[in-house]
């Protein structure tokens, strides 16, 4: 089991091995929580990965303070997420069987879900965008490729044509995103 | 300015590819036109969202990769709480169980309330009450009995004989012997012979110690029987001796053959013989004869636990009783016959002669 500070430094350094250690360390705890409260292993996986993402982003933003144990933090996020899920599924029986102590993390979960919604909207907009726009957007804005590469890849003879195409695509993507 | 051109300029501005003079120009434009400022902010946000989306996708795929290495199935089995079946049942059915329990509790309370067990009473009180109830019942029974007796008294004395036994003649002039227990407490005693004739008698003497009673026929219809054909044996009889009796267990004279089985009677009573002979309650007071036609005893009881065992008062105690009769109680002579005319007769012929001297004793009382 990695120490809490090891995990934070590892995340900041994009360390794959620390991420793996972190993931393996606390999954059983969350699996236990979910399967003993009306859930299955797939639901446990979804909940847990969401919690890891919340932690990851928090650490990346630099506002994770080691005021509580990492374990307690992850458990609290998962617990909150699972409670919401149970209520959505109308499976909530009035109480939840707990295995750890936990903190109040409602605000953080709320923020995370707002952001998550935005990202899902982006994903949907990209799907609707169609080719070649989608690939151009991904290459330029997401994968940081140069316009030179993109020109060659799509066989644009004129770099200006490629630029024009890129801006058209971006305009359409914005339109699709804000229309939703 | 076209949107595309503006976008291109914004991107160049943001990526610091813009030469210094153009940059100053754009800054001036930005100050002048607030919409350009907003466009810049929007562009920054939107492209960063695209970046975040990318980051999210890559993180997600990294996590999925890690997750695939976990043996979730085994882990699940280990982590699944396996509560005992009682707990599981409670979890799955607790609402139903609760309802059932409430109903049961309600029912019990209702029953307790109606049976009065809810009140703070000592259970022993119940028992006492039962006792009292029993006493009450018995008292009312007694009351009913008393009522019956009073009613019976109003209708006068009973007509039918309450009790009967057997008796036999001591002499031809009307002295008869029977058991004391047959006539004790009687108001009047009648004897009935084999022909069905009844004669009124009086009790001349009783000897409760030997269970002997002497009666005398005082009925005017009575005629002398003639000399009795048997004698009374004074000595002891031997074990194994063949004996028989005649008596009235019912309305008819009955013959009962048997044997002398012990020289003492019930609980070692030396005044009695023990016999093996078929007798019934009405046989009490009947003569026990030996083969030669001597009276050796008077039947007086039988063993209830052992079939066929009876007891008889030895004849010498009868003789003793006769001797102790006060002389003034006898208005006729009581002289026992010393001559035995049955000795050489067969048993059937003995019985033919005997039957005239054996009586049914009928006792009447209120």
Explain what you see.
The complex is a heterodimer of chains A (180) and B (366). With 180 residues, chain A is mainly alpha-helical. Helix content of chain A is 73%, strand content 0%. In chain A, helix 2 packs across helix 3. Chain A starts with a helix and ends with a helix. The mean pLDDT of chain A is 85. Chain B folds into two domains: 66 residues; 202 residues, Beta Barrel (Thrombin, subunit H). In chain B, the strands form two sheets. Chain B has a six-stranded antiparallel β-barrel. In chain B, a hairpin with a 3-residue loop joins strand 10 and strand 11. In chain B, helix 2 crosses helix 3. Chain B is rod-shaped and about 185 Å long. Chains A and B meet through helix 2, helix 3, helix 5, helix 6 and helix 8 of A and helix 1, helix 3 and helix 4 of B.
Q: Would you kindly provide a brief summary of this structure?
A:
Chain A is an all-alpha fold. Chain A is built from 8 helices and no strands. Chain A folds into 2 domains: 101 residues, Rna Polymerase Sigma Factor, Chain: A (Orthogonal Bundle), CATH 1.10.1740; 66 residues, Arc Repressor Mutant, subunit A, CATH 1.10.10.
Number of helices of chain B: 9
- Return residue spans of chain B where pLDDT drops below 50 for at least 5 consecutive residues: 154-158
CATH topology heading of the largest domain in chain B: Thrombin, subunit H
Order of adjacent strands in the largest pleated sheet of chain B: 1-2-5-4-3-13
Low-pLDDT parts of chain A are none
Please name the two chains that share the biggest interface, counting residues whose Cβ lies under 8 Å from a Cβ on the partner chain: A-B, 37 and 30 residues
CATH C-level of the largest domain in chain B: Mainly Beta
Series of secondary-structure elements of chain A, N-terminal to C-terminal: HHHHHHHH
Number of strands of chain A: 0
Over all CA atoms, what is the radius of gyration of chain A?
Answer: 21 Å
Spell the H/E element sequence of chain B.
HHHHHHEEHEEEEEEEEEEHHE
Task: Tally the structural domains of chain B.
Answer: 2
Basic shape of chain A: elongated
Which percent range fits the helix content of chain A?
Answer: over 70%
At the first level of CATH, the class of the largest domain in chain A is Mainly Alpha
In percent, how much strand structure appears in the residues of chain A?
under 5%
The CATH architecture of the largest domain in chain B: Beta Barrel
Into which percentage range does the β-strand content of chain B fall? 15-25%
């Amino acid at each position: 089991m990695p120490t809490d500070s090891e995990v934070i430094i590892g995340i900041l350094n994009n360390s794959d091995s620390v991420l793996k250690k972190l993931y393996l360390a606390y999954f059983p705890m969350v699996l236990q929580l979910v399967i003993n409260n009306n859930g299955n292993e797939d639901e446990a996986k979804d909940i847990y990965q969401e919690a890891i993402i919340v932690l990851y982003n928090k650490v990346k933003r630099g506002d994770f303070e080691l005021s509580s144990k990492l374990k307690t933090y992850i458990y609290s996020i998962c617990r909150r997420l699972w409670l919401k899920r149970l209520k959505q599924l109308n499976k909530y029986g009035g109480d939840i069987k707990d295995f750890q102590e936990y903190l109040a993390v409602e605000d953080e979960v709320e923020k995370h879900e707002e952001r998550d919604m935005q990202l899902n909207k982006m994903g949907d907009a990209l799907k609707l965008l169609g080719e070649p726009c989608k690939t151009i957007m991904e290459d330029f804005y997401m994968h940081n490729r140069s316009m030179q590469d993109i020109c060659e890849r799509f066989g644009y003879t004129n770099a200006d044509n490629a630029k024009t195409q890129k801006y058209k695509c971006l305009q359409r993507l914005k339109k699709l995103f804000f229309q939703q | 300015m076209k949107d595309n051109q503006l976008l291109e300029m914004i991107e160049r501005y943001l990526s610091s590819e813009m030469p210094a003079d153009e940059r100053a120009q754009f800054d001036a434009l930005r100050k002048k036109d607030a919409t350009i400022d907003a466009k810049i902010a929007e562009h920054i946000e939107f492209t960063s969202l695209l970046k975040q989306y990318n980051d999210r996708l890559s993180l997600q795929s990294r996590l999925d990769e890690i997750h695939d290495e976990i043996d979730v199935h085994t882990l699940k089995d280990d982590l699944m709480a396996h509560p005992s079946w009682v707990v599981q049942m409670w979890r799955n059915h607790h609402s139903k169980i609760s309802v059932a329990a409430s109903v049961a509790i309600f029912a019990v309370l209702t029953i307790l309330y109606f049976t009065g067990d809810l009140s703070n009473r000592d259970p022993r009180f119940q028992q006492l009450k039962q006792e009292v109830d029993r006493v009450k019942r018995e008292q009312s029974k007694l009351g009913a009995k008393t009522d019956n007796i009073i009613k019976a008294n109003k209708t006068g004395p009973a007509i039918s004989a309450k009790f009967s036994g057997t008796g036999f003649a001591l002499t031809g002039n009307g002295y008869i012997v029977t058991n004391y227990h047959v006539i004790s407490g009687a108001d009047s005693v009648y004897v009935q012979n084999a022909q069905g004739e009844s004669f009124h008698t009086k009790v001349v003497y009783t000897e409760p110690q030997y269970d002997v009673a002497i009666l005398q026929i005082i009925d005017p219809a009575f005629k002398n029987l003639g000399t009795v054909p048997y004698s009374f044996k004074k000595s002891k009889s031997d074990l194994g001796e063949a004996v028989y009796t005649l008596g009235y267990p019912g309305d008819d004279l009955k013959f009962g053959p048997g044997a002398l089985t012990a020289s003492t009677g019930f609980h070692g009573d030396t005044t009695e013989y023990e016999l093996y002979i078929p007798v019934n309650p009405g046989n009490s007071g009947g003569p026990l004869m030996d083969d030669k036609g001597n009276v050796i005893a008077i039947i007086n009881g039988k063993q209830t636990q052992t079939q066929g065992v009876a007891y008889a008062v030895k004849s010498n105690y009868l003789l003793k009783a006769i001797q102790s009769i006060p002389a003034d109680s006898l208005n006729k002579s009581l002289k026992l016959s010393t001559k035995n005319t049955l000795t050489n007769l067969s048993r059937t012929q003995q019985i033919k002669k005997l039957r005239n001297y054996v009586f049914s004793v009928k006792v009447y009382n209120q």
